[in-house]
Automatic annotation (TrEMBL), chains A, B:
Organism: Aquilegia coerulea
Similarity section: Belongs to the chloride channel (TC 2.A.49) family.
GO molecular function per UniProt: voltage-gated chloride channel activity
Domain CBS: 441-502
Lineage start: Eukaryota, Viridiplantae, Streptophyta, Embryophyta, Tracheophyta
Pfam family, one: Voltage_CLC
Keyword tags: CBS domain, Chloride, Chloride channel, Ion channel, Ion transport, Membrane, Repeat, Transmembrane, Transmembrane helix, Transport, Voltage-gated channel
Name by which UniProt lists this protein: Chloride channel protein
Superkingdom field: Eukaryota
Family annotation (InterPro entries): CBS_dom, CBS_dom_sf, Cl-channel/antiporter, Cl-channel_core, Cl_channel_pln, ClC
Length: 507, 507
């Protein structure tokens, strides 16, 4: 349960949304807390074990000096390198998997079967390499254990001994992380076991992401990072006396920083996973170092995935080369526009011929003195209007009255895939020659920019206001009132580079 | 030291700024932590006592049921009422103080002397009402104490006794808060002492804010809230068994929520003051309740102060009545504009006659086919250009070359009060008849809206992009290319209500 995770999401939210999120989060937290209390008395079976804090490691109050900081920085640098390597490999693997998955469901399922067999072999096979260790004295928890979660798996050892590699592999991921994060357990894991576990998890994490199962990136990266952190902590023992569990936490942070690159949100997530505010300075330091190192190699893993899927993601800032262009330069034509009272046939033809989602509406004489921009009409609204079939034989304004024949929610935004499609609208031959008044469904206050507006400033407007369409209007008079419509695709570097190959696309 | 406070400030920041803030915060946290470690060994005298967590109360793991939640909700409701009353009284007192302070420095100082005398009388006088209590057994800290910070002030009691009221009054505010927040000290304070302390601090807090000393609102409100919380916790003892220190924390949260109304940031601040993530659900709940209750009475204290000072603060959302207006409706005239190459005398006259900070620049024939908007020029840039005195006798374009005669930072934004003033620019009589080309200093890509744009949408544009000037352009052709310029003042409810008295200003 991530109470605090909403803090990082609030960036750039409106205050109404913030307030609602806060409200729901508070209710969830209180109710969940109540249910955990109720279940802790054993009324829900195994359900409800655990608490609000996922890995409540309760580390001892740590003090640290310059050598410790040095160790943390080294940990961050190597973590950053491994993190960016992770991104690089995930990218390569994902591209391969995309090709395999495209071949059909058989290949998809085959891929899943191969990966899960491989994972099973690793999980069961590798612990055989592990050595048996006598259980430490003065333990609060049972040791060794069989068939339940917790530290110290017995595996194939004799009585009173445990297999440290099995304690990591044959466990839930959550418990393995908790084991690695636990403090005061410096000698629980052999150096060789940590190395084997790290290599296996790092490798399995990379080849698992992208197959047809619901799996994420967070837990594999934390797991690999925690084992890496413990391993490096062992090696750096001579210069740093920080706890092995703390090293595991910092290692996880360095991997997260190296792959995801979201410093502030990761900081918050790690804080609420561990509930230790005093670790925050070290966590921040390691995140800073690993993000900086990894940024010099490649982009964050989510940026990579967005790019690979071809989603038109607009960066928060305008690219430098946009300062040398104006809005008119990137408008892609041809422009398809409607007049205020348009022939049904023209609308149907435009909807058939283009995939545009917004069309400018232009008032022409005799309904205005000169052609002028009336507004923008959306494809989805056009479809609803056409399906309503309130057409007139003459080119006359019908006014708002026509809207009363529609239900209150007919023009509301439909759920994904639930809106009307062009195939749903059947127009008779004679209706094609009739007219429909677009004014009632036209957005009369579209945001506009002049054609000579700097593209960088147009991009800021587009992004900050979260627009879908931006009308470009002419600067000089006596020309058609709309030059074109800018959409998200027109701001994409690929589009602009296609138009102006001499601009180099530097980040 | 507030490590986490930056989390709440990041709302709406750009990512570059976020990253820099994170970096500096990490460095500060690490360095501060190092210095505290260094000073803890006694090398810095009294300096360096304490830690990163201001009130590390280390409460026992709390469990709570429905009656406890009910108690917390009651606490929040009453806290909300007291919080909004605090706002109301602070507002009244501030208005009175503003009048007194305007009368001159003598009155200012006299006011400070009176308030400080009153505070001293309360701090020393009221503890005499307090009763002497025997020191509890099994204490880790010394009791009673004289002349140092901590709980259990001896004041005028006999050996082995302490005065609970003196422990609150004759202490630093930080220590008093720590005393109130401390857990497992249910019987340390008498109910009557808490009531007296609460009344005194509530009253003193209200009359202290606004006098000519550097004082804030946070600590007085936390102090009053903490004593209120303990008091109510005592009274609610029959239905709730929560710790008295936790009640004090929740009381402080309810007062903060009732006065400041910033739920998320307060949550973060309380979290890092106390370092207890498990309290978060209760803190969120009490903040929610108290903010909701207080919102039904008046606005937050900072909103009140902004309004009282007459600052043109734009709300994040557009007011509902703005949907019924268009941009043209609220433009305040008359418009003062320049032509591209303008007579120096005209510029000087405009700068003298108006206080406008931005002027539209319009290109006219023969420099364009028809009058068209070239851009916006700032008053500060005009002053720099005029002081440079690069004038020409004829109306000819000089181009960018003229800028080379200025230094790189001449047009940079000057620090507050450091920019050129109109008096600094001396123009000879003959120069008044000369011309200056404004194109080099004109912002050629101003954001514009059409005059018929919904005022609500114009307000969103203005606010989201953080504009100072917004050009309103005509919809129909054949008219001057600018209708007017919208500034922040034009969006203020007072301005709009003056123009359209029939719109009522509902929040």
């Amino acid at each position: 349960m991530r109470i605090l995770i909403f803090f990082f999401s609030i960036i750039r939210w409106r205050s109404a949304l913030l307030w609602r999120t806060f409200f729901t989060t508070a209710v969830v937290a209180v109710v969940l807390r109540g249910l955990i209390e109720y279940c802790r008395s054993g009324k829900c079976g195994l359900f409800g074990q655990g608490g609000l804090i996922m890995f409540d490691v309760g580390s001892p109050m740590t003090t640290y000096g310059t050598p410790d900081l040095l160790a943390v920085i080294i940990l961050g640098i190597i973590g950053g390198v491994f993190g960016s390597l992770y991104n690089y490999l995930v990218d390569k693997v994902l591209r391969t998997y995309t090709k395999i998955n495209e071949k059909g469901p058989t290949f998809k399922i085959l891929l899943v079967i191969i990966i899960s067999l491989l994972t099973s072999c690793c999980s069961y096979g590798l612990p055989w390499i592990g050595k048996c260790t006598p259980c430490p004295a003065n333990l609060k928890e049972p040791c060794p254990t069989i068939g339940r979660s917790g530290n110290f798996k017995n595996f194939q050892c004799q009585e009173g001994h445990y297999n440290d590699l099995a304690s990591l592999f044959l466990n839930t991921n959550d418990d393995a992380i908790r084991n690695l994060f636990s403090s005061g357990t410096k000698d629980e894991f052999y150096l060789s076991s940590l190395l084997i576990f790290f290599a296996a998890i790092y490798f399995l994490g990379i080849i698992t992401y992208g197959i047809a199962i619901p799996s994420g990136l967070f837990i594999p990266v934390i797991l690999a990072g925690a084992s890496y952190g413990r391993f490096v902590g062992h090696l750096l023992g001579p210069i740093s006396s920080l706890d092995a569990g703390l090293f595991a936490l910092l290692g996880a942070a360095s991997f997260l920083g190296g792959t995801m690159r979201m410093t502030v949100s990761l900081c918050v997530i790690l804080l609420e996973l561990t509930n230790d505010l005093l670790m925050l300075p070290l966590v921040m330091l390691v995140l800073l170092v690993s993000k900086t190192v990894a940024d010099s190699f490649n982009k964050g893993v989510y940026d990579q995935i967005v790019k690979m899927k071809g989603l038109p993601y607009m960066e928060a800032h305008a690219e430098p080369y946009m300062k040398h262009l104006v809005a008119r330069d990137v408008v892609s034509g041809p422009l398809v526009s409607f007049v205020g009272i348009e022939k049904v046939g023209n609308i149907m033809q435009a909807l058939h011929m283009t995939k545009h989602n917004g069309f400018p509406v232009i008032d022409e004489p005799p309904f205005s003195d000169a052609p002028e921009l009336c507004g923008v009409v959306l494809r989805s609204h056009l479809l609803v209007l056409l399906k309503g079939k309130r057409f007139s034989k003459e080119r006359v304004p019908t006014g708002e009255a026509v809207l009363q024949r529609f239900g209150a929610f007919d023009f509301a935004k439909a759920g994904s895939g639930k809106g009307l499609k062009l195939e749903d609208v059947q127009i008779e031959e004679e209706e094609m020659e009739m007219f429909v008044d677009l004014h009632p469904i036209t957005n009369g206050s579209p945001y506009t920019v002049v054609e000579t507006m700097s593209l960088a400033k147009a991009a800021v407007l587009f992004r900050e206001l979260g627009l879908r369409h931006l009308c470009v209007v002419p600067k000089t008079q006596g020309r058609p009132p709309v030059v074109g419509i800018l959409t998200r695709h027109d701001f994409m570097p690929e589009h602009i580079m296609g138009l102006f190959p001499h601009f180099s696309h530097h980040k």
